[in-house]
Amino acid sequence: MKKNSLQSITEGAIIVALAMVLSYIPHSVGISSIEVLYGVVPLFLYSWRRGFKAGVIAGIAWGLLDLILRGLSSGSVLNAWQGILEYPVAFGLLGLAGIWSKAIKTKLDEHLSIGSLVIISSLVALFGKYLIHFFAGVLVWGSYAPKAFNPWTWSLLVNGGSAIVTLVFVIIIMLLLKRVLPKIINWRLK
Q: Which Pfam families does the entry mention (predicted)?
């Protein structure tokens, strides 16, 4: 196995573990179903560093861990298809942020701002994840919607709210990391 490949796998395992640990920090906002997903920050950083494929694999691994450690134990999995869609598939879509990896690194090499690429990649990745949750919310969880809402509206409110709150969280963290973000993305072991 190549040294760079081993480093990428090791780094991915650490990122997945960190994302999983961050899942245990209370993260409900307002309505108990709207949640901030803290683990997306390390996963996005990893995706921007290592690219799309590595980001998707790390996202799938995080989704499987979350399914086993939190989903099954909390009763959040009603059937196999819903479990597969809402955990490994939805979390794997967070790796979409890695599509912009080369563009971000090119801009960093040219000492240009990466803010717009960071926001766009985060938006697309979160949209992909929460689109899966939106459809699962309608098809699987719709019968649990309050009587005042139809399943489509309720799922849009809960999953759209979670996506927006998580995106705002990511933007705030990236602004706080603005000075060190280039070093994090381009950091290399010697």
A: Thia_YuaJ
